[in-house]
């Protein structure tokens, strides 16, 4: 499964575009939309390459989230965004995933998303916005679901 265009655009918004390498909050050289692999201070890229790096970075996260279960598109988008931000291992071992797998209700799942808004010991507005979007996206209707369950046999007569 791949993230939707909706998710890709939100990830760009959340990550922000930086065409010149910078040190992230953890002191890691970063460029583009949060790309870190092989980045050195002084590197400069175009917006085109920033998007290519983002898509390549997402590929691994998509595969990892896919391995956790069967998701509809909105659920998948929300969990990929979450894992892309905090790391797959943290998602895999989180109370959020346990709550989802145990059939938690909407309130309980949203609460688990919102526990992940802290960085450097402080509540971060950007993380609050991101988690609120992820929680909302998780519960949106799958736009493609009607197409998946429709009986297309009437077109083959």
SSE-based structural type: mainly alpha
Q: Low-confidence parts, pLDDT < 50 over ≥5 residues?
A: 146-157
Number of strands: 4
Q: State which percent range the strand residues make up.
A: 5-15%
Q: Distance between the terminal alpha carbons, to the nearest Å?
A: 31 Å
Anisotropy-based shape: globular
Number of helices: 8
N-to-C order of helices and strands? HEEHHHHHEEHH
C-alpha Rg, in Å?
Answer: 17 Å
Mean pLDDT: 91
Strands of the widest sheet, in order across it, are 1-2
The major pleated sheet works out as:
2 strands, antiparallel
Helix content: 40-55%
Q: What keywords describe this structure?
A:
157 residues, mainly alpha, two-stranded antiparallel sheet, two-stranded antiparallel ribbon, 4 strands, globular, disordered C terminus
Please outline the helices and strands.
Blueprint: H1 5-15, E1 18-23, E2 29-32, H2 47-66, H3 73-86, H4 88-92, H5 95-101, H6 106-114, E3 118-119, E4 122-123, H7 125-138, H8 145-149
Antiparallel strand pairs: 1-2, 3-4
């Amino acid at each position: 499964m791949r993230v939707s265009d909706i998710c890709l655009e939100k990830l760009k918004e959340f990550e922000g575009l930086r065409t010149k390498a910078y040190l992230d909050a953890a002191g890691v050289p970063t460029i583009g939309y949060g790309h870190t692999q092989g980045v050195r201070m002084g590197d400069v890229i175009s917006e085109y390459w920033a998007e290519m790096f983002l898509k390549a970075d997402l590929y691994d996260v998509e595969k990892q989230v896919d391995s956790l279960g069967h998701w509809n598109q909105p659920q998948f988008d929300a969990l990929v965004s979450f894992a892309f931000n905090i790391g797959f291992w943290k998602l895999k071992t989180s109370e959020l995933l346990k709550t989802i797998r145990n059939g938690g209700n909407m309130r309980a799942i949203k609460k688990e998303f919102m526990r992940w808004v802290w960085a450097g010991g402080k509540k971060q507005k950007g993380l609050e916005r991101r988690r609120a979007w992820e929680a909302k996206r998780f519960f949106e209707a799958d736009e493609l679901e009607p197409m998946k369950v429709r009986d297309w046999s009437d077109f083959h007569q």
